[in-house]
Amino acid sequence: MLLENARMNHACVALLELSQHWETGELVKTKDISRENSLPHKYLTQILLQLRSAGLVVSVRGSRGGFRLARHPREITVWDVFQAVESTGRERREGKAGLREGQRLLASVWREAAGGVRETLEKYTFEDLRTAAQVYHI
Asked: Which CATH number is 6-137 given?
């Protein structure tokens, strides 16, 4: 499937975890997200840095530091996460001068497919996911 990949999944899990702490404003350490969700710590750290660069999370350094959402969970969609973690590498690959015609054609197919994916992913905010997770957590 187009979106079934570790980077996207780990990013969404991390944001869902951070959204659980939105109300308190608590900073969450990467190691805690990693441990609670059985995610590789170093890989998760790289992903959170990408999310920070995209303006989805903020980080505070130091022993009491950690990550938190940059804005309310209702203002962050799954599509925002997709753009943050997936589009940068794809744009670099598609922008290479030496691509063959077949590769360029495939790139246009993926862009077209992403249009339908975008419509779906824009429907879901992390507030929606946080609320659903709380219902199932009972």
From this structure: 1.10.10.10
pTM, full prediction? 0.79
Sequential pLDDT tens for the chain (138 residues): 455 688 999 999 999 999 999 999 999 999 999 999 999 999 999 999 999 999 999 999 998 999 999 999 999 999 999 999 986 555 444 555 556 777 777 777 877 777 788 888 899 999 999 988 877 654
Spell out the alpha helix ranges (H) of the chain. 6-20, 30-37, 41-53, 78-82, 88-94, 101-121, 126-137
Q: Are 72 and 22 in contact (CB under 8 A)?
A: yes
Residues 17-24: contacts with CB under 8 Å, at least 24 apart: 18/57, 18/67, 18/68, 18/69, 19/69, 19/73, 19/76, 19/126, 19/127, 19/129, 19/130, 20/130, 20/133, 21/68, 22/68, 22/69, 22/72, 22/73, 22/130
**Residue 110 to residue 115: CA distance in whole angstroms:** 9
